Structure formats: structure tokens, C-alpha cells
């Protein structure tokens, strides 16, 4: 749960990519609990159905449609369908991402490209489509989920670090270009978040190291996103907020993958 008032997003509509599981699902639930109508998209229908059923049990209005964010036409269709269903789109959360730890020498050309395609180009596709179909006329908020790797070389994370750091840069460019239109664009970089697929994919050795570090919850990320899309953050744009309990500024705590 968050400490924010229940109705702060009343009447607004939020689209969350990768919203069927993990951090994306928690963001959807949290924005929904605070009054937003929720649209979620991901590649797997069964995950979307399960998430929608959970949301609806809590009284959150939910719309789900499959898409792969790498496919611009599919993304445009999701945004058109969301607009048809709810009549507006105020909030876009670019959360869909792919991740696997792999040293550069063990990654194929396509492995590296796949992560850039999903995390960076996929977020661009959704951002551009939402902007064109709705945000440029009405304003709104975009939050990109990044990773706290922008200043460090992180072993076995070259692909993710490159894609997510690119996404931070895209965040700033969109924020500057679209500030006059009332569109705020920020990003949130989660640290080690318990019970997520991303963290589960690290090796046992890295997981042991991580246990010694601070580990956050999905709710910690969702609450930060909630603040950023709320009117309390109305003058915040182009920022990346690292949500990691300070882990990444303590070099001794950083686990080796
Ligand atoms: N190590 C090295 N290479 C890997 C890999 C790993 N663990 N996992 C996938 N790859 C490579 C594949 O071999 C393939 O390259 P190739 O064509 O040269 O063989 C390339 O990456 C694409 O993999 P593929 O599984 O075909 O792509 P996909 O689009 O279906 O899925 C992911 C890619 C990353 C999304 C997939 O691994 C996945 O479903 N991950 C779960 C989502 C996730 O990670 N969530 C957490 C986000 S923080």
C-alpha cells in the first residue's frame, strides 16, 4: 500500500507495458488503487488475464491486450484500443523489458540487439505512438523504467546497461521537447527488487551477494511511479530517480554477477 490519498488519480487512464507480471503489475495495481483506469499489455495473454482478474477483484477497471513492444503497429493498435475503451490516456509507463545476465563474449550479436530492441526501441515505439495518438493534444505523463547502470561498467550487463542508459537519455530528450505541451517524462531506476524475474535471473553467487545488499520491494517502485505521475510532481520532468536504498552509491555492496 502507499501513503497517498486514494483518489489522486481519479478519472485518469494509465497504460503499463509489461503490466501482466512483476514490477509492471504492481505499478498497475497501485495506480488503479489510487483511482486510475488501467490498460496493460505484454506478450502473454495468460499473464494479462490473471493480472486483470486480480485488479478487478479490487474494483480496478482494467483493459488488457497483447502486443510485443518491438512491433510499432501492434503498439499503435493497443493505444487505439485503449482510447476506444476508456476515451483518454493520461499516463504511460514503459516497463516492458528483457534481461539475462551474460558476459559479452557469450552473447550473440542477436542477444545484445534483442535487449536494445525491447528496452530502448520498444519504449520509443510506445512513447511515439502515445504522443501521436493522444498526448501531444492533451498532455500527460510518461515514466520509463530504467536501471541504475549509467555511470558504471557492470559485468554481464553490457546489453541492459546500454539499452537502459539510452532510455534515460530518451527520457531527457522527450522531457525537453514536450515540456511546452504539458507532457512530463521521467524515469525510475530500480535497484535489487525482491521477487522479480530480473533478480531471479542472476546466478546463485550473485543472489547470495545481493542478499547482503539492500533489497527493495515492487511496491517501493510502484510508489515512486505513483508520486511521479501525481500532481505533486507537476514540476518534475526529465529526471531519473534511482530507487535502490543507496546500494549503488556503495561500491562495496555491488554484487559481482
Ligand atoms: N544468455 C545468452 N544469450 C541469450 C540468453 C542468455 N541467458 N537468453 C537469450 N539469449 C539470446 C538468444 O540465444 C537469442 O540469440 P540468438 O538468436 O543469437 O540465439 C537472443 O538472445 C534472443 O533470444 P530469444 O529467446 O529468441 O528472444 P525473445 O525475444 O523471445 O526473448 C527475452 C528475449 C530477453 C525477452 C527473454 O529471455 C525473456 O523472455 N525474458 C523474460 C523477461 C525478463 O527478462 N524480464 C525481466 C526484465 S528486468
Give an overview in words.
It is a single chain. The chain has one domain: Rossmann fold, CATH 3.40.50.720. The chain has eight helices and seven strands, in the order βαβαβαβαβαβαααβ. It has helices spanning 22-33, 45-57, 72-86, 109-138, 158-178, 197-200, 204-212, 218-229; strands at residues 13-17, 37-41, 62-64, 91-94, 140-145, 183-190, 240-243. A seven-stranded parallel beta sheet has the order 3-2-1-4-5-6-7, sandwiched between helices. Helix 1 crosses helix 8 and helix 3 (72-86) runs parallel beside helix 4 (109-138). Coenzyme A (COA) is lined by residues 97-100, 102, 106-108, 110-111, 114, 118, 197-198. Coenzyme A binds at residues 97-100, 102, 106-108, 110-111, 114, 118, 197-198.
CATH architecture identity: 3-Layer(aba) Sandwich
- Based on CA atoms alone, the radius of gyration comes out at 17 Å
Number of domains: 1
Number of strands: 7
Total count of helical runs of at least 4 residues: 8
Q: Which structural class fits the helix and strand makeup?
A: alpha/beta
